[in-house]
Design brief:
This protein is an alpha/beta fold. The protein is 22% helix and 24% strand. A hairpin with a 4-residue loop joins strand 3 and strand 4. The longest helix has 11 residues.
Length: 228
């Protein structure tokens, strides 16, 4: 198992993640804003069919995927410095639907997801804001995404972004604090330090997911944790 996470996540979280696979710490310079420069969900789009990477992802990570015999495809458009073009790959795909601000999605991603129900939202940082689970269940910290998905019949838990750390910003996004491997949700931080922690615990328990808290501290938005 290859685990890709932001180099800036807390050290205790790094130590604990290493128990579950080979940890790769992502770091880039001069490509996009510093606060999101190591976020996996800025440079990687992952669907059930394949992985699509930004063309300007540093070559060291592309070479690593080759070494591990992990298949991937390159997108056509670079991640840029400013939003919304920094969010071209920050989309969510489930086995049933594709969710993103589709006017900025990389064309390769749009082609990859043509067989899915297309749901357009206004928040370009969709994956940062949205955590997908089986059977059209989601957690989001974005009110606009919540309204859109709820109106399409999805089961969505809306949580607050308050108390989520994203250095350089007043707060982060809930989706960016988590990664999912099989039936386990890994969280950068402890839900006991989060205002909506109990709501999240109950929601995940009802869905049959386990929770692993990677360190005892406030939730940290690391741009999600990618398990390959």
């Amino acid at each position: 198992m290859l685990i890709i996470a932001d180099k800036k996540i807390p050290d205790k979280a790094k130590i604990n993640l290493q128990k579950y696979g080979e940890l790769v710490l992502l770091e880039t310079r001069g490509i996009t804003e510093e606060s999101i420069s190591g976020h996996p969900d800025i440079f990687f789009f992952s669907s059930q069919k394949e992985i699509i990477i930004a063309p300007n992802l540093p070559s060291i990570y592309r070479e690593l995927l080759h070494e591990k015999n992990i298949s991937f495809r390159e997108g056509r458009l670079n991640v840029e410095v400013k939003y919304p073009m920094a969010a071209r790959y920050n989309a969510v795909a489930t086995d049933k639907c594709f969710i993103h601000r589709t006017d900025i999605s990389d064309p390769e991603i749009l082609e990859n997801t043509l067989h899915l129900q297309q749901i357009k939202v206004q928040q370009g940082f969709t994956r940062c804001s949205l955590l997908p689970f089986s059977n059209n269940n989601f957690i989001t910290s974005d009110e606009g995404i919540f309204e859109t998905l709820a109106n399409t019949g999805m089961q969505v838990l809306l949580v607050k972004p308050d108390e989520i750390i994203l250095p350089g910003h007043p707060y982060g996004f809930f989706g960016g604090t988590c990664g999912i491997m099989n039936d386990t949700v890994f969280i950068l931080g402890s839900l006991s330090h989060y205002c909506d922690g109990e709501k999240v615990k109950i929601f995940l328990k009802n869905l049959g997911y386990k929770i692993i808290e990677l360190y005892d501290g406030p939730l940290f938005d690391g741009g999600s944790i990618l398990f390959i």
